[in-house]
Amino acid sequence: MRFLTVRTGLTESIHDVAVVAVDATGTELYRSGDPDRPLFYRSAVKPFQATVALEAGLTLPVEHLAVASASHSGWPVHVAIVRSILSDAGLDESALQCPPSWPLSQGAKDLQVRRGVVGPKRVFHNCSGKHAAMLAVCVVQGWPIDTYLHPSHPLQRRIVELVTDATGIRPEPVGIDGCGAPAMRGSVRGLATAFANLSSSERCRPAANAVSRFPSLVADNSRPDGKLARWWGGPVKVGAEGQIGIGRHGIGIAAKADAGRPEVAVAAVIATADELGLISDAMRDALGAEAAPPLLGGGKPVGAVIRE
After folding, report:
1. For residue range 256-297, what is the model confidence (pLDDT) as tens digits?
2. Across all residues in the chain, what is the average pLDDT?
3. How far is the C-alpha of 144 from the C-alpha of 135, rounded, in Å?
4. 179: buried, middle or exposed (CB in 10 Å: 19+, 13-18, 0-12)?
5. Cβ-Cβ contacts under 8 Å for 275 (sequence gap 6 or more)
6. Who is most buried in 7, 52, 173, 307, counting CB within 10 A?
7. pLDDT category, 231, cuts 50, 70, 90?
8. How far apart are CA 188 and CA 38, in angstroms?
9. Model pTM?
10. How many distinct structural domains can be found in the chain?
11. Straight-line distance from the first to the last Cα atom of the chain, in angstroms, rounded to the nearest whole number
């Protein structure tokens, strides 16, 4: 699938996207580009990492489970839930091993600056919810906390096994994600298969429900993935470098924008879902800006990112 950045009638950029849709049996429903090229899933598999924490004995309210599965934008509600997950485990944010960061959202960062915060904090990192849940389940299990990110840690070994089951691909050798956690290896097809399973399997139902019910906790209300999730009716999760997985009723769709543009990946899964008859008229109207992200000139629309 290809998208064009068109400004005032001139094509400025070309964006190729690998996209595939599969059902829960693995049957291919749609494909474009190369969905089998290796990639790291990055944050797109956070709902599965959170599922491992639940299976290992961690109990989380549904809102906390959503943040554990999130790439949150660092608004106060996100930060408060991360701190609550840690506090319930007898920990504080000093236990986090994700790097110090400002909130992902510029608005959330500006708010913290106005509050007098003078520098980045680990709890602001968009992956801090995942890290907090990992730490909390280590407390439950009596596993070491200081090495919770090491690939040989019992928690990380369980994550590898679940991601293997969900994607149908062994996710090793692992890399290192931006947050310091192991990055699972796979493909766009593997991600689509995972989201077909996420939206249909009893094993993953708690995380799927949390992600579906609370898109503003998983992302926020202004990001393209958050806006899509508000309308989609199933789990939606982005990963770094322009990838996304979505699922509903046993159908999984995943996309990877070659140039790493997240808004292009979102547009690609919307286009694919529309071709499969999964987008209603109301959704199509509501998601117009996500399906064809507008370009501004002087603060006014002068073009868009459109499908070729």
Report:
1. 999 999 999 999 999 999 999 999 999 999 999 999 999 999
2. 96
3. 9
4. buried
5. 30
6. 52
7. very high
8. 8
9. 0.94
10. 1
11. 8
Contact 270, 279 (CB under 8 A): yes
Report how far residue 240's alpha carbon sits from residue 185's, in angstroms, rounded to the nearest whole number: 13
174 phi, psi to nearest 5 deg = -75, 155
For residue 24, pLDDT over 90 is answered with no
Nearest-CA neighbor of 136 among 66, 68, 77, 219?
A: 68
Question: How is residue 119 written in tokens?
Answer: 């520098």
DSSP assignments along 121-180, one per residue: BGGGSTTHHHHHHHHHHHHHHT--STTTTSTTSHHHHHHHHHHHHHHSS---S-EE-TTS
Which residue's entry shows tokens 């691909």?
169
DSSP states of 202-213: STTHHHHHHHHH
What CATH number is associated with residue 172? 3.40.710.10
